[in-house]
Amino acid sequence: MKKTFVLVVLFVLPLVAYLFFASGVNNFGKLPVLTENIPDISQLDHALSLDGKITILGFMGSNIQQKKGNAFNLNQKIYKRFGDFNDFQMVMVVEDGHQEDAELLKKELGELSNADKWHFAFGDGDEIKTFFAQLKTDVNLDDDLSTPYVFIVDKDRNLRGRKDDEDDGVKYGFNTTSVAELNNKMEDDVKIILAEYRLALKNNDANRSK
Q1: What is the helix (H) or strand (E) element at residue 54, kind and residue range?
Q2: Residue 196: in which H helix or E strand, if any?
Q3: 33-209: which CATH architecture?
């Protein structure tokens, strides 16, 4: 009986664990596309683009001072963890006329970490509303053209999210006022999309070497 138990522990359980995790990779290896081919941020700022980048896209509107806490949460929980990855960037949409506030925020973020991949795109009210509407989410902009939610956009300008979130069902964005949501959901989803691209890159390299 002891021998049988030892054999089960040594050989059967590892096999079951492998099959479980292998199944998980197949089922959860890709983050669903919720909106295809959103417009490029170059519509608002010719110096920026979403093409070829994994982007965390946010809308800070006209009151950056009130949104600083959201930015610091995002910086600490997401940017500091993933900011060193190639082709990763943060883009915050701000109403035109608030460039100085954006620069001050970037300077303050730079005191906590390297803020080189924090970018701000500026537009007037109508431009921001039009751009935001094309994301086709279930989130609304506040009167000051802001939202606490940020969105994951892939290198092909597809908005990624969850189709079967336990709380929201379809989940388009992540609430930056909630550290728990950034920790427990957004961090996992950013990991998934980065792993997806790493796997694709590895497969491409393997095909070239054949």
Answers
A1: strand 54-61
A2: helix 187-209
A3: 3-Layer(aba) Sandwich (3.40)
